[in-house]
Amino acid sequence: MRRRFSKGVIAIIVIVVLLAVSITVGVLRLLHRTPALTELGEGCRVTTPKGTRDLDIEQAQVAAVIAAVAARRKLPERAVVIAYATGIQESKLYNLAYGDRDSVGVFQQRPSQGWGKPEQLVDPVYATGKFFSALVKVKNYRKLPLHEAAQRVQRSADGSAYAQHEDDGKILAAAFTGRVPGAVHCWFPPKPSKSPTAARATAKPASATPLPATERARRRLARALGPGSTLDTDSRRRGWLVASWSVAHAQEFGLRRIRYDGRAWTSAKGEDGWRPDAAASAARVEIS
Questions:
Q1: Which of 121, 135, 228, 252 is deepest in the core (most CB within 10 A)?
Q2: What's the pLDDT band for 157 if we cut at 50, 70, 90?
Q3: Per the record, which residues fall in region Disordered (predicted)?
Q4: What is the pTM of this model?
């Protein structure tokens, strides 16, 4: 014998189901929009007159490398915007070790298509260099619509997709190229300090002592910016490019303070961004 429910009971069941679905959707949206609930208390923020964008530290590092490689090649900001829009579409500015078919890296370049070896293409400096080498061969790329210029380099299935990231690309380019001073800041929790006993137990022999963090950071910067590059600056824009690169890589190298052009950033108060520092030189980016 089949049990029949009244219209009132059915209505109540429908309302309960709808409420359950609404609550679930609401919770998921809250988790998505509240970084404190889903993230580890680290990240970077880019702020320019055109808008603000939040990035993971890895994304900020990739963005800083792209800007540095462009500066090394003396490319215009438009080239950087195109590179960012392409990288956002292809990998969300992550250095991926996988992708469609044999695609890898920030720009999802394929070894089988002559871009390079897989181990080369997961090096953002190399991958960015290859991207720019192809871009500058595109006739009038600076005047073309962004998606057309990007597509002539990438030759993807849907070239129109790059266009949707142009505004983000402009914001990131203004910040990481140094055109907008103090536009990039990052924050992350401090590393736990080792006890004296643990430090002695893990200490390396004097002959194997690693380079100081500041020297390792400087050498990494020189890979992207060019041999012989130093923390000395010949222009305010280049100085802020170096300062932004340094902030993006501060967690990796354990940098505690970066000073430049009358401002300073510290890892202890990374969320506060760049603060006034009258002693910060405009002739050199100081890292420690």
A1: 121
A2: confident
A3: 191-215, 267-288
A4: 0.83
